[in-house]
Structures are given as C-alpha cells and as structure tokens.
Amino acid sequence: MSASAPTAAAPLPYKLIATDLDGTLLRPDETISVRTRQALAAATAAGAAHIVVTGRSVPWTRHILEALDYHGLAVCGQGGQVYHAGEQRLLTSVTLDRQLAGLALSKIEAEVGPLFLAASRDGLDGQVLVGPGYRVQEGPLPNVLMDDPGELWAAPLNKVYLQHPTLDDDALAHAARQVAGDLVGVTMAGPGVVELLPLGLTKATGLSLAARRLGITAKETVAFGDMPNDIPMFAWAAHGVAMANAHDELKAVADEVTASHEDDGIAVVLERVYGL
After folding, report:
1. Closest of 137, 176, 186 to residue 22, by C-alpha
2. pLDDT of residue 151
3. What is the per-residue pLDDT across 85-108, written as a single tens digit (0 to 9) for each?
4. What are phi and psi of 183, to 5 degrees?
5. Which end of the chain is more exposed for a tag (fewer CB within 10 A), N or C?
6. Under a CB-based contact definition with an 8 Å cutoff, are residues 73 and 86 in contact?
7. Within 10 A of 216 (CB to CB), how many other CB atoms are there?
8. 256 pairs with which residues across the strands?
9. pTM
10. CB within 8 A of 79, min separation 6: which ones?
C-alpha cells in the first residue's frame, strides 16, 4: 500500500499585513501587547509579510522598529519614505516643494488666520522643528524649538504640521483643502496633527512601492488603521480594518471594525483570519 501524498498547505488569506502605528499597533504608552506580537509573529512564520505604514518620519519610527526586532521594509512619512530597517537605509524619499508649501500656508492663513507650525526635515536623521505656540504631544519623540520662522524652509522637508488656536482638526483640515488642496496634500494623522504633504502623496503611494518590492499585490493585502490618513491605504488594500477607536471617516470606508488598539484589535482579526 503506497503512502498517501502530503497535504498541500492552505493558501494564505493575505500575503501582506499593513499596520499603522499610533492608535493601531501601538497602545497609548507606545508599547505593543504580547498577544499582538504573538499574532504577528505567527502570521509571518506562516509566510505573510508585515509592513509598518506610519505617518511618522523615519527618525520617529526607528526605535519602534528596533523594539519589534523588525528588519523588513517600513513605509514612513505618510508614504513619502520607504525605509529598509534591516539595512538602516532609505530606499525612496519624497520631499515637499517648499515654495508651494509656503504659498499654501499663505492661502490657509488668509482664510483662517495665523497658524502654529512645525515641520519634519527629510532624511534618516531629519529633525522635527517646532515653532512658537505649536503644542507638542507628550512622549519621547525628539524635537527642536524654532525661534526664527526662516528655519522652517532652510533644508528639505517631508511635511509641515499645522495647528490653529481655535479650530478643531477636522475644521482646519477642511479649510486647508478648500483653499490649498490644488497645491499640497492635506491629511489628518491624529489628534492635533494636520499635515501638508507633497500633492498626491498618501500612505498608499509608499505601501504600493514597498509591496511591489516584495512581489505582493493590493488584492493580497489586509490593512489596519485608525485615522483619515489611512483612507487611501484602505482604498488600495483588499481588506481595510478600522480600530474601535478610529475616526468616523475611516470607519465609514472600512470593511470591518475590530477592537481598539488597547484591546488587541489587530490580534483579534489575525487570529481569526489566519486560524491562529
């Protein structure tokens, strides 16, 4: 009697898992739960790839990747930077046209009044410059106070951050798009984080480039996020999962809503989908 043929391995439900960081993979204290770590490790051991896709620029992301023992590709800077964590080098980097950004700021301030500004400089060690009045979120992320407004434009940038003394984030982002959306991209990435980006740049831009390097397509991708800046990534991926704590705009376009970033929402989905 002949031996039976080995059973073929079941195909992976998704070959690529794309996760935002803040409000998604990270808990409020910037840690990742044991359960979520184990779920990601099991899915990648089964053959899936994991790509971090974050609005943070590389200097604000590297310590998270190191804590994850992450050696693959990461998409940073709202899609403007594709970073190889293992080799510690930038594979792509898109910078903001400073002349267009200056014109956009002028138009926005003419509409809503003076803004508080910060900016992220390009490169592996690009500093985040913070101007007077800009409210920096508490935490370990380094930044440099900027006394001279001219410093903002002194070196290549990947984004400019906006805050307004009275308008909330949604109202500020809407006003900025209305008057300057033909010059720059405008996105909201978190509480108090409205950003000006190169026109047309989104997380989907960087994710598609990174996925292409891995030979993986959009229809083989599941994406997790929590803010409106994740909307293009959800549009690109086959399946978009919003966290319970997500902004309503993202929940409206998500394929499903999972538990919050404090309650292992990523692990809940991965365990179900990959049979972990």
Report:
1. 137
2. 85
3. 999 999 999 999 999 999 999 999
4. -110, -40
5. N
6. no
7. 19
8. 241
9. 0.90
10. 53, 94, 201, 202, 203, 204, 205, 206, 207, 232
